[in-house]
């Protein structure tokens, strides 16, 4: 890369921002240029820019008017197309942030998007085109020289929740005097093989990379200012890969930190009282450059060749503009799964593969142990990997947070109801598998945890993989207790007593029996997916979960979907009620696992199901090509020409088999 001079790159002080940049967060998109292997033009997205008033939002629409019955449109502050390069983004978006940095306001530029969507090319640049970070440092250096201040930089990487200093771990920041010096340090840090990679002897892992430019303070009374550039690891829907072990954990962590960041941006944009910085290492690290009077530029990178993950990222980007713009959806008459646009799909919990049939909590409690690391996370979650809702759940979620979720999952469902009612429903999934033991949430959607109102419906889901379920045959409770003990010992944040008592001894024989039956029945259905059983909640569990998660007792208990639709918490005292409760959970679990199989099973597995022959199996596979998860609820089976009556019959037969 040639040495930069501000003038050569149009960075002289006469280049002033044309737009009013008083907004705290700007969310823009960038459609990357084509690589040599790709051919243009991209026809999956239409960018509509406002005529005249540049402060109006830009609309990006997905789907083809002619062929698709449905079209999704998202509003953002701006969308840069292929022909609009880094220098233009710099002049319009980054330069105003630099102005702010010299006025004492921290700034953060974050590039995020699907894998290969051009994030690095935008932030770091290439031989032909300098990236935003390089252009910004050139500009800052030019200006500090004039006013006698100085800069230093830090370059770091976040991999698997560990932060690595890529320059000099002994020094918090390394002074930089010229752009060539900067490029040498920055690019060297960028391409170096990091500690994690060295250990694994390979350089292919995904990680977030960040640059902090520290601007010295002009006097003791004025604090030092920072400008951050973050190149997030690419989002990838892990369901499409048979991710296992480290890859799956890595993927899950990457995605989670993207959601965590978006949650923070949303909270900041919406001026919420609580901003969930503690959700991830990255947000904690950036906290002082995101909060307060800092300015943020969210740059959603889009792949010009259609990519589902890009579209999904776009829906999230638009979501983080909530409060400023709303997602626009144009839904045509047909709403069958077969016609769903790609962006409808929301990735589900990947780590455990567990299926939750109950309502989505707003605050989650998570205890995880993977690779020897145990952490406890309490999160509010607007953006979530498990943001899937059944139809009936959607109906019951007429509070405003329903529309939040719908937008977050890219759904066209638009709720105008802005009721302030929110619910809190902490859930836990206890996962036992050979490689790791973890207690993780049944990852679900959430809304603001600042609402004073809410329902608490704690449920525990025991997930065993098939083999283990077979091996255990009713040994669930001791196994869980062992896992919990390990977890309790490893985490200082967990009260061992409380945890062990989460398992209600009275229920274990029943659960064990159910587990055994389901295990046997689902054997034919499941190849690798786990089996899921849910414990009914009770008052004891409730208080324990509350104690552990620090969740305030709701002032007004509100019934939530699923278990508590039918009975008050604490009402389930009689064995008959408990049995009923388990029965309903078993049914739900069966349906969810059945749908999961339809969404993931091989053709042969599909054909082994009652009512599904060659033709239907082929049409299921075709639907899956169009949308990664075409079957979200039983109703969706109509897309493969099954009537409601046939579906009910199939389910009855299936559930009946449990008792054969
Ligand atoms: N504007 C562009 N014009 C042409 N090719 C581009 C452009 N931007 C990116 N590319 C190419 O696209 C590919 C992916 O780019 P890049 O590495 O920047 O993506 P990324 O989103 O950072 O990827 P990852 O998710 O793996 O970190 C590279 O081959 C790059 O050269």
From TrEMBL:
Residues that, per the record, bind ATP: 113-120
Biased composition (Polar residues): 347-362
The entry's keywords: ATP-binding, Microtubule, Motor protein, Nucleotide-binding
Domain Kinesin motor: start-end pairs: 24-323
Cited SMART domains: KISc (SM00129)
Renumbered residue ranges of the record's region Disordered: 48-68, 336-362
PROSITE patterns (alphabetical): KINESIN_MOTOR_2
UniProt keyword DNA-binding present: no
Similarity-based family: Belongs to the TRAFAC class myosin-kinesin ATPase superfamily. Kinesin family.
PANTHER family attached to this UniProt entry: CHROMOSOME-ASSOCIATED KINESIN KIF4A-RELATED, KINESIN-LIKE PROTEIN
Name of the protein in its database record: Kinesin motor domain-containing protein
Highest classification ranks of the organism: Eukaryota, Viridiplantae, Streptophyta, Embryophyta, Tracheophyta
């Amino acid at each position: 890369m040639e040495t930069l001079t501000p003038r050569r790159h149009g960075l002289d002080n006469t280049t002033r921002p044309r737009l009013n940049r008083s907004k705290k967060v700007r969310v823009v998109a960038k459609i990357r240029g084509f690589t040599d292997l790709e051919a243009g033009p991209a026809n999956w997205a239409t960018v509509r820019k406002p005529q005249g008033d540049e402060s109006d939002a830009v609309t990006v629409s997905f789907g083809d008017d002619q062929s698709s019955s449905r079209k999704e449109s998202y509003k953002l502050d701006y969308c840069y197309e292929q022909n609009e390069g880094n220098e233009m983004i710099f002049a319009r978006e980054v330069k105003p942030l630099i102005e702010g940095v010299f006025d004492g306001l921290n700034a953060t530029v974050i590039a995020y998007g699907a894998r290969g969507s051009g994030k690095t090319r935008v932030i770091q640049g290439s031989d032909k085109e300098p990236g935003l970070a390089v252009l910004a440092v050139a500009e800052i250096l030019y200006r500090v020289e004039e006013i006698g201040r100085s800069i230093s930089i830090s370059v770091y990487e976040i991999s698997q929740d560990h932060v690595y200093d890529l320059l000099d771990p002994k020094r918090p920041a390394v002074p930089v005097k010229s752009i060539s010096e900067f490029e040498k340090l920055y690019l060297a840090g960028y391409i170096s093989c990091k500690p994690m990679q060295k250990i694994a002897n390979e350089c292919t892992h995904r990680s977030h990379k960040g640059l902090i430019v520290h601007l010295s303070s002009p006097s003791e009374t004025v604090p030092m200012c920072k400008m951050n550039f973050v190149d997030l690891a690419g989002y990838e829907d892990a369901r499409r890969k048979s991710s296992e072990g480290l890859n799956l954990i890595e993927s899950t962590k990457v995605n989670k930190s993207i959601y965590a960041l978006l949650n923070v941006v949303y909270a900041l944009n919406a001026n919420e009282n609580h901003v969930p910085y503690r959700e991830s290492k990255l947000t904690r690290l950036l906290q002082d450059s995101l909060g307060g009077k800092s300015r943020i530029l969210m740059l959603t990178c889009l792949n010009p060749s259609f990519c589902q993950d890009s579209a999904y990222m776009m829906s999230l980007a638009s979501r983080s503009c909530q409060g400023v713009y709303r997602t626009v959806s144009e839904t045509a008459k047909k709403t069958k799964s077969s016609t769903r646009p790609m962006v409808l799909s929301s990735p589900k919990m990947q780590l455990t593969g567990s299926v939750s049939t109950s309502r989505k909590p707003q605050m989650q409690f998570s205890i995880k142990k993977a690779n020897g690391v145990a952490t406890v996370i309490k999160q509010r979650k607007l953006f979530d990997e498990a943001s899937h809702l059944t139809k009936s759940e959607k109906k019951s979620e007429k509070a405003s947070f329903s529309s939040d979720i719908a937008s977050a999952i890219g759904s066209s469902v638009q709720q105008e109801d802005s009721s302030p009612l929110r619910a809190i429903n902490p859930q836990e999934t206890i996962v036992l598998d050979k490689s790791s033991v973890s207690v993780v949430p049944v990852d679900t959607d959430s809304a603001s945890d600042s609402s004073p109102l809410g329902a608490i419906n704690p449920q525990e889901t025991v997930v065993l993989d098939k083999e283990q379920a077979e091996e255990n045959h009713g040994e669930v409770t001791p196994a869980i207790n062992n896992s919990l003990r390990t977890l309790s010992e490893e985490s200082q944040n967990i009260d061992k007593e409380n945890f062990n008592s989460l398992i209600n001894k009275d229920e274990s024989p029943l659960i064990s029996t159910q587990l055994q039956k389901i295990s046997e029945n689902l054997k034919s259905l499941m190849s690798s997916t786990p089996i899921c059983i849910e414990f009914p909640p009770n008052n004891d569990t409730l208080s324990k979960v509350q104690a552990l998660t620090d969740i305030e007792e709701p002032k007004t208990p509100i019934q939530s979907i699923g278990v508590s639709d039918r009975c008050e918490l604490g009402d389930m005292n009689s064995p008959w009620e408990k049995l009923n409760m388990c029965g309903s959970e078993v049914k739900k679990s069966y349906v969810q696992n059945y749908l999961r199989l339809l969404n993931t099973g091989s053709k042969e597995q599909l054909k082994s199901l009652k009512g599904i022959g060659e033709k239907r199996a082929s049409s299921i596979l075709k639907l899956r090509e169009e949308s990664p998860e075409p079957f979200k609820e039983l109703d969706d089976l109509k897309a493969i020409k099954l009537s409601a009556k046939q579906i009910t019959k199939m389910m009855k037969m299936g559930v009946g088999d449990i008792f054969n």
